[in-house]
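Q: For a teaching session next week I want to show students how multiple molecules come together into a single three-dimensional assembly. I've collected the sequence lines for a complex. Could you give me the predicted structure tokens for the whole thing so I can convert them for display?
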Amino acid sequence: MILERQEEERSRIDFLELSEVGEFGLIEMLSRRVPPGRPDVVKGIGDDAAVLRASGETWLLFTTDMLVEGVHFSFSYAAPRQVGKKALVASISDIAAMGGWPAHALVSLGVPPHMPVEVLDGIYAGMQEAAADYGIDIVGGDTVRLPERLAVNVALLGAVEAGQALYRSGAKPGDLVFVTGFLGTSAAGLYLCQHPGAAFPEEEAGFLRSFHLEPRARVQAGRILAGSGKVTAADDVSDGLAGEMHEICRASGTGCLIRGEAIPLDARVRKLAGLVGEDPLAWALYGGEDFELVFTVPARDAPVLERALAAANVPCCLVGEILPPEKGICLETKPGEKIPLPRKSFDHFRADED
Amino acid sequence: MILERQEEERSRIDFLELSEVGEFGLIEMLSRRVPPGRPDVVKGIGDDAAVLRASGETWLLFTTDMLVEGVHFSFSYAAPRQVGKKALVASISDIAAMGGWPAHALVSLGVPPHMPVEVLDGIYAGMQEAAADYGIDIVGGDTVRLPERLAVNVALLGAVEAGQALYRSGAKPGDLVFVTGFLGTSAAGLYLCQHPGAAFPEEEAGFLRSFHLEPRARVQAGRILAGSGKVTAADDVSDGLAGEMHEICRASGTGCLIRGEAIPLDARVRKLAGLVGEDPLAWALYGGEDFELVFTVPARDAPVLERALAAANVPCCLVGEILPPEKGICLETKPGEKIPLPRKSFDHFRADED
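A: Of course. Below is the structure for the complete assembly, covering every listed component.
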């Protein structure tokens, strides 16, 4: 039944241009060609990282991310050091979402021939800073010519105790949905990067910009979630909460209800949004790059997990619950009022984004 | 002493633009920032792949390669399927050069928004073809927007028996230098791709083009070399024999003499070169992308290795010997006549290459 639906989508997609398909559709389409896997593959395409058997006690986590100048970052507001740091952190966050620890990175750079070497040196310095922060070794890479703009690809190897990896696919109706930290902070910071003239107190503006430019990955929180054995699904909030809930619900075969009023927003985010006439909830749902974790847990296990996170100084907030699939993916805008929550998210192929 | 020289180079490089530094200088420059490594890193930056401890019996091999449209390939002569296949084979060849077997790949695509989806589908089909040929699973990836041209990054995990990895760094004066297969074949094929009107018999032209467009990696030969325990240094010939000999000699602290007349050239390569007025030896030394293996072995161990390769139908040819470092890196143009062998090689940053 599911196979039939996929075939239908496949034939439809073949006649579309990439800009219409979008990133999510493309990865899905391509992944249908994958034949049955090697026996050492625990989990292939379709989660934050692949999971591979390495030894009896340890599974490998393997993930890759490409960042492109002018698409994912701009040197008009980001220092090379920040670009390098964030490129590594984005991949580390994928490992965190699987409950593992990061270990070894390979960095590929596509570089315009006349880019000053000090820019590359700054990028590399930022990567080494993040590598040192998270106990990673950068063990190699590739550097090639890319005439028009810089592209940075990070391939990251991590590990997790065998059997403890966190997937998107285990959420069950009745599970509660939590997020760590605050959402929308990175989008607010991006707004300030792109509107340097915005009349906003510099100290608060600096705080918000730093969340966008120098994010942190929730490795410790992911380790606590994996170690608890209670978490049924997890993802990092790299594409906005709406997109991640669609990922979790699709992988788990469920619906969900997210309570808009429960989504944790920093006071400075609300203040900036009010000042510039933006919706802070839209930043949280669709802004992306917060690199917080969203996870689901049976209601009876939630208190233990909340205490464990609190003990590690990881803020954690109940934002909704998992529902049967026929309930769809919904947002409670205020008590008693529900609307479907579209997945529209930070999607790098949409034409309106250049 | 070596450290001092590096510092001097470093300060010189900082004032140069990337186009002057070139790819090799850049990787070296950046790698100097790397702090002492994790204890599970057997070998970090500086060989075909990083070597990591995974379990008692097995080491991981980890490598990445980025290919850029218009720099490394062109759709004017390469089918999308061939581009995908070659992207994976280039990384597989790095694993072969370390004596290991390839296992898991992640593929990042930077894609212009209006690229037809069937092009991407073709690339992916070619990758899956190579993956099936070499027993690899493509376990994930990333797809992002790159406005001007396609970029393909492959990150590949392989493995080798603990202690058996082949490095560039163990060659000793007196060792003999061998290559598998024939060299310059890929460059001859590229010539025909770029000169479709060349008056050359189509059957032979097709053979040469196929070497450029659908190369194979020498995994089996690498396994034989690693299993022998006799090979002192190895590399794949991805950048031309001259560049690889510079790599081996620099890593090993030696010189070498390569005998030009001993370099194995396919008869069709000689014939084409004669017809179009090119030097087939230059194709072998500087053309690159042959994906053969070059390796060094003590003279007394060479016969056993030659027999083992012959038994596996891997052609293998003695092309020179390793010398003390003060002898430099030389080419014997004819018996008794030696010239320095410059490393000038397929270097993607040089301005004359666009």
